[in-house]
Design a protein that fits this description.
The protein has helices spanning 13-77, 92-99, 118-125; strands at residues 102-105, 112-114, 144-145, 150-151. By secondary structure, it is mainly α. Among the domains are: 12-74; 91-127, no CATH class. The strands form two sheets. The protein has a two-stranded antiparallel sheet with strand order 1-2. A two-stranded antiparallel ribbon has the order 3-4. β1 (102-105) and β2 (112-114) form a beta hairpin. The longest helix is centred in the first third of the chain and has 65 residues, at 13-77. Residues 33-62, 129-158 are annotated as: Disordered. This is Centromere-associated protein E-like.
Amino acid sequence: MKNDPHVTEVSDEGALLKRYRNEIEDLKRRLQEVSSVTQTTAKEKRSLSQRLQEKDQLQTEQEDRIRNLTKLLVTSSNLVPVQKVPKRRETWGGKMQGLARTSRCDRETGNRKVDLSCLSELCESDKDFDAPWEIPDEPSDEMDMNQTSVTVRSFADR
């Protein structure tokens, strides 16, 4: 003996319409779920792409800052030497001190003994020295003589 259970189907039009409505509602619900998932993934995708752009922008800004700071560090160690501005005047003693070589120094008094061979070179190099300031051979009325100092005045330039 064999059992053959089966559901009897009613095949009238009302039952078919009800079944089709239920199936349509089920399909609409599934479509809405899938579209909401798709919309959610699209929103997530947009937000992730926006975050990625912000991250890239911040990274490029940081790289620019690092480049600028390293450039400053590298250039700050390479200081440009300051050129010495020539003095307006040079004193005779200063020029002779630069040319003279010290041979011996008395430590107690601070006096120095200097090699005077450089004075001849100094006289030869200063041929363009101002001629009106020569020392006269004989004293005149224009000269004031004192035990401590001698002053020479020239009235030719006035």
